[in-house]
Amino acid sequence: MLKVVRYTYENAQEWDGFVEGSKNGTFLFMRAYMDYHSDRFKDHSLMIYDCNESKTRLVGLLPADEKDTTLYSHQGLTYGGLVLSRKAHIAEVGEMFTAIKDYLRGNGFRKLIYKQIPKVYHTLPSEEDEYWLWRHNATKVGCAVMTAVDLYATTNGTTSSRKGTTHNKLVREGYKVVTDAPITDFWPLLTSNLMERFNAKPVHSLDEILRLQSAFPKNIRCCTVVSPTGETIAGTLLFISKQVVRTQYISASHEGKLHNALDLLMPELIAMSRKNDTYRYFDFGTSMATDGESLNTGLLQQKEGFGGRSIACNVYSIDISEDGNGQQTS
Q1: 3-state helix, strand, coil in the chain (%, to 5)
Q2: Rounded mean pLDDT of 229-255?
Q3: Which pTM does this prediction carry?
């Protein structure tokens, strides 16, 4: 029998321990990361337990927040979905979906918006949810396109010849990549660029990203390009998970764009990641236009020029008011 309970701060250690040992969880699901924006999202994360006469064991997590009568997984995170143990099997995941729907229905929810964890973050095959989403009549309501380089492939991940020429030219001229730069060297450049181009600010404030880096020093790194005169002209933040290196922000100054500084930075970071056998993918993130549906083709082509290829990031909606558990009946 499965029991679904709402996460509370007293469960933080148990929650984090499960994420660490899961087959598809990343540090974004650790409570120190999720709770940094607790003032912006009303957390309603769920913990699923298998309860029997002999023992009770935690078998799944759903990082989530609530708004009105809808549960989201999770609006403050890049990706979401069920976090599963390495022993999870498909029948058990089916029971989890039924138990979650029963819990939500009993607590006045009408809809679940389910944002899947992209496949590249699975350390073991973990698409049980894909089957059960179908069985529970989930409707696809969103699909973003992520671009990733397969670091294990021998015929993929090669930069275009033009980018390679630019890379070599910048090296000869004395431009350098700094792989552990202070975030404060990069943040003014990023903030200025976003404001100028999109009248927007970074999702994280400087204080927030510094606190997150302090909490996860092995997972969050700042990498920059420095000109021969010592000026930071481009950079990115790397969010490093078990097998994925992800660029969370990418930006270049006017000088950086003039000299195509990213053509130096990205190949260097991909090569650095490829040398570490732990990492399987280099993730450039999504390339969506401001409407959330159209592709930013220029940005996408730039990422493909570094050897990246597309991965779908799906979002589903489940009507909680419907009865049924997705099981076949005789």
Answers
A1: 35, 30, 35
A2: 96
A3: 0.91
